[in-house]
C-alpha cells in the first residue's frame, strides 16, 4: 500500500462525502424548516441525473445538462410541494413516510415508462476528463476533483445564503419558531415552496454530477437517500454544519473502509477470505459508525439536545 | 355484532374459501396467490404490533423478513448439500424441517430486533424512521457482499421443506399451514391488544409521560413490542422463502420494508385485520394491475397517496368508520 | 419510619448560563401539605422535573422514603411511591376513563409483561380503579373516552390515576389550573381530605387554595427558596412580599 494510493482513496472519500452533503443538506433543510421527512428526495436526485443525461444527449453540452438538471429537479420539487407535500406538513411522520413512499413509486415507474429500463449514460466533457497531476506526483481524475471543488463551492454558497441573505434569515427563523415567521409577515407557503425547490435542486445537481461517473438509471436515488439519512442521523437533524461533517465522515469511512479493511484482514488470513470478510465488514462500516454516534450522542453530533 | 368484527370474519372466511374453491377447480396458481397473501399479511401483523399499537414507524422490517428468509435458506441449503453449518465448537447441521427453521427464524430475527431496537429506541420520531431504514440497508448490503450464501444471486432450494404429517409440496396443504399460522398470529394479537402489555403499549403511544408517571418505562414496553414484532415478521420471511423456494437480498431491501408498511396502512393502522386487508389489496392490485400494465407501481403509488391524503383510516376505516374500538 | 418522607437536598440545575434552580432544599413530612409557590419563571417546573425524575440535577440529591433516588428515572420513582399529577392534563386521550385508571393500578401493583389475559377483567385492578374513580366522582363516566371529558373532569381523572397508585406521597403540579371558582373549591376540599392518606407537595398558583390547604409554604424566586414556613409567617415575610410585589397580591 503506497501513500499515493492512500491519498487517492482519501480524495475519493472526500468526493463521495461532498456528494452526500448535497443530498443531506436539502433533506435536513426541509426537515429543519418544515418538519417534513421526505423519502422522495432520492427521486429528485434521479430526475436531475435523467434530465442531465437527456439534455446532454440532445445538445452535447455538459453545462446545459447541469442547468437542465437543476431546473428539472427544482421544478419537480416545486410541483410536488404544491400538489402533495403541502398537505403533509400538519400530518404525522407516518403519513409523510407513506405519501413520499408513494411518490417514489410514481416517480420511479414514471421514469421507467418514459426512458425505459436501460441505463442512460452521461459523458464527462473533454475539458474535464483525463487525469490531473497533483503536488506530490499524484495522478487524479480531473472530473472527480471538479466534483469536490463544485461541491465545496455549493456548500460555501449555502452557508452564505443562510447566514447572509433575507431568505436565509427567514429559513433560520422558520427553524427556530414556525409560528413566529408567519407573525413577521413572511409568506410561509411561498417560503416552503422555495426551500423545497432549493433542496430539490441540490439533489438534482448531485444526481447529474454523479451521473457522469455512474450509470443513470431508475432506482439510483434511494441508496443515496438512505446514506443521506445516515449522514443526518450522525450530524444531527436540521443542522447544515452537521450535514457537512456527517457527509464527510460517512464518505471517508465508507471509502477508506472498503480500501483498508480487506488489506487489514489480509495480514491475518488468506487473500480470498480477507477480501470477502473485509468487503462484507466494509459494507457495514458506516452503519456501525451511526450506531456508535447513537450510543454516545443520540441527537447527532450537532443536534439540539 | 359490530361491523368491524363482521368484516374481519368475512375476510378470514374469504381467505379460506377462495383457495378451497381453487383447489376444487384445480387452479393451483390461485392457491399460491392466496398463500402469498397469507404470508405477507403475517409480515404485516408483525409490523402492526410495533407500528399500529406501539406507534413505532419502523422502515426496517425487511431486516426481519430477510433474516427469516435466510434462516430458511441457510439451514435448507446445508441440509440439501449434506454439509454442516459448523463443526466447532459443536456440530450444527442444516435441516429441512419447517418447525426447526421457524424457531431459528424467530430466534434470529428476535435477536436482531433486540439489537436494532435497543439502539434506535434511544431516539424517536424521524430519527427512528431513518435509523431503522439505515439498519435495513446495512443488512441488505451485507447479504449482497457476503459470498458464502449466494451473495447478490441469492439461494435456491430444490424441494420445499417438510412439516410433520403434511405434504408441503401440495399447494393447498402448504396454504393451510400458512393460513393456520396467520390465524394463530391474529388470535395472539387480539389477546395482546387487550392484555396488560397491550394497554400499556397503546397508552405509551398516546401519552408516554403518563405511562412513565404511573411507574412503567416506555422504553422497555417498546423494545419488547419491537422484538415480538420482528419475530412475527421473521416467521413470515421463513414462510415466504419456502413459498418461493428461494431467498435473495431483495428480501432485505428498503422496498420490502416499504411494502410491509403499505399492507398495514392500506388496511387500516392499529386494526387487528388491517394487515390482512392491506395485503389482500396489495396482492390483488399486483395481480390485476400487473396484468394490465408493466408500470403498475404508478397506480399502486396513486392508490397509496389517495389513502394517505383522503382515507386515513385505511380500507377498514372506509368500510366501518374511523373509530377504532377502545373497550 | 422517619418524619420526613421526601427530602430535597441542595439541588442545582443549570441550562447553559441560566441557573434555573440553585441549592434548593425542601422537605415533605408525613401528613402535611407543603405548598410551593413562586412567580412565573421562578423555576418551579424545573424543580418538579428534578423531583419527579425527568430532569437530573447538576448537584445535590433527592431522597425519598429514606433512599437516595437521585439516579432513578421517573418510572422507578413512581414505583417507589411518588405519584405525580401534571399541570396540563396528561392522559391517554383515546382511551376510556376506566382504562386510564386501570393503567395507573397496573403500573403500581400489576404485572405489565402479561400478554394474554384481558387486563380489563382483572378484578383486583378494576377494584382499585373503581375505588379511585368513585372517590373523585368519575365512576359514572368510566366508559367515556377521555378526549370527550370536560376540562374539570380531566383534572379529576388526573388525581384519580394518582390515587390508583396508592402512593406514599403526591407531587401535584397546579391541580387547580383552569378550574373555575367552584371547581377549585371542590378540589381544595378533596385535597384537604387526601393528606391523611399521603402527604402532598403542592405547586399551585391559586393562593386561596394554597393558604386554605398548606401546613407549610415555600417560596421559590429565581431558582432559590427564599422562605419556608407556616402560611401566616409567609404572608408576613417581607422578602416574599417584595418578590410578589406587582406580580400577585397575597391574600
UniProtKB/TrEMBL annotation, chain A:
<keyword id="KW-0812">Transmembrane</keyword>
<feature type="transmembrane region" description="Helical">
    <location>
        <begin position="12"/>
        <end position="32"/>
    </location>
</feature>
<protein>
    <submittedName>
        <fullName>Amino acid/amide ABC transporter membrane protein 1, HAAT family</fullName>
    </submittedName>
</protein>
<feature type="transmembrane region" description="Helical">
    <location>
        <begin position="273"/>
        <end position="296"/>
    </location>
</feature>
<keyword id="KW-0029">Amino-acid transport</keyword>
<dbReference type="GO" id="GO:0005886">
    <property type="term" value="C:plasma membrane"/>
</dbReference>
<keyword id="KW-0472">Membrane</keyword>
<feature type="transmembrane region" description="Helical">
    <location>
        <begin position="39"/>
        <end position="56"/>
    </location>
</feature>
<feature type="transmembrane region" description="Helical">
    <location>
        <begin position="142"/>
        <end position="163"/>
    </location>
</feature>
<keyword id="KW-1133">Transmembrane helix</keyword>
<dbReference type="GO" id="GO:0006865">
    <property type="term" value="P:amino acid transport"/>
</dbReference>
<dbReference type="InterPro" id="IPR052157">
    <property type="entry name" value="BCAA_transport_permease"/>
</dbReference>
<feature type="transmembrane region" description="Helical">
    <location>
        <begin position="184"/>
        <end position="213"/>
    </location>
</feature>
<keyword id="KW-0813">Transport</keyword>
<dbReference type="GO" id="GO:0022857">
    <property type="term" value="F:transmembrane transporter activity"/>
</dbReference>
UniProtKB/TrEMBL annotation, chain B:
<dbReference type="GO" id="GO:0015658">
    <property type="term" value="F:branched-chain amino acid transmembrane transporter activity"/>
</dbReference>
<feature type="transmembrane region" description="Helical">
    <location>
        <begin position="100"/>
        <end position="119"/>
    </location>
</feature>
<protein>
    <submittedName>
        <fullName>Amino acid/amide ABC transporter membrane protein 2, HAAT family</fullName>
    </submittedName>
</protein>
<feature type="transmembrane region" description="Helical">
    <location>
        <begin position="260"/>
        <end position="285"/>
    </location>
</feature>
<dbReference type="GO" id="GO:0005886">
    <property type="term" value="C:plasma membrane"/>
</dbReference>
<dbReference type="Pfam" id="PF02653">
    <property type="entry name" value="BPD_transp_2"/>
</dbReference>
<keyword id="KW-0812">Transmembrane</keyword>
<dbReference type="InterPro" id="IPR043428">
    <property type="entry name" value="LivM-like"/>
</dbReference>
<feature type="transmembrane region" description="Helical">
    <location>
        <begin position="126"/>
        <end position="149"/>
    </location>
</feature>
<keyword id="KW-1003">Cell membrane</keyword>
<feature type="transmembrane region" description="Helical">
    <location>
        <begin position="297"/>
        <end position="320"/>
    </location>
</feature>
<feature type="transmembrane region" description="Helical">
    <location>
        <begin position="172"/>
        <end position="190"/>
    </location>
</feature>
<keyword id="KW-0472">Membrane</keyword>
<dbReference type="InterPro" id="IPR001851">
    <property type="entry name" value="ABC_transp_permease"/>
</dbReference>
<keyword id="KW-1133">Transmembrane helix</keyword>
TrEMBL record, chain C:
<feature type="domain" description="ABC transporter">
    <location>
        <begin position="6"/>
        <end position="247"/>
    </location>
</feature>
<dbReference type="Pfam" id="PF00005">
    <property type="entry name" value="ABC_tran"/>
</dbReference>
<dbReference type="GO" id="GO:0005524">
    <property type="term" value="F:ATP binding"/>
</dbReference>
<keyword id="KW-0813">Transport</keyword>
<dbReference type="InterPro" id="IPR003593">
    <property type="entry name" value="AAA+_ATPase"/>
</dbReference>
<dbReference type="InterPro" id="IPR032823">
    <property type="entry name" value="BCA_ABC_TP_C"/>
</dbReference>
<dbReference type="GO" id="GO:0016887">
    <property type="term" value="F:ATP hydrolysis activity"/>
</dbReference>
<protein>
    <submittedName>
        <fullName>Amino acid/amide ABC transporter ATP-binding protein 1, HAAT family</fullName>
    </submittedName>
</protein>
<dbReference type="GO" id="GO:0005886">
    <property type="term" value="C:plasma membrane"/>
</dbReference>
<dbReference type="InterPro" id="IPR051120">
    <property type="entry name" value="ABC_AA/LPS_Transport"/>
</dbReference>
<keyword id="KW-0067">ATP-binding</keyword>
<keyword id="KW-0547">Nucleotide-binding</keyword>
<dbReference type="Pfam" id="PF12399">
    <property type="entry name" value="BCA_ABC_TP_C"/>
</dbReference>
<dbReference type="InterPro" id="IPR003439">
    <property type="entry name" value="ABC_transporter-like_ATP-bd"/>
</dbReference>
<dbReference type="InterPro" id="IPR027417">
    <property type="entry name" value="P-loop_NTPase"/>
</dbReference>
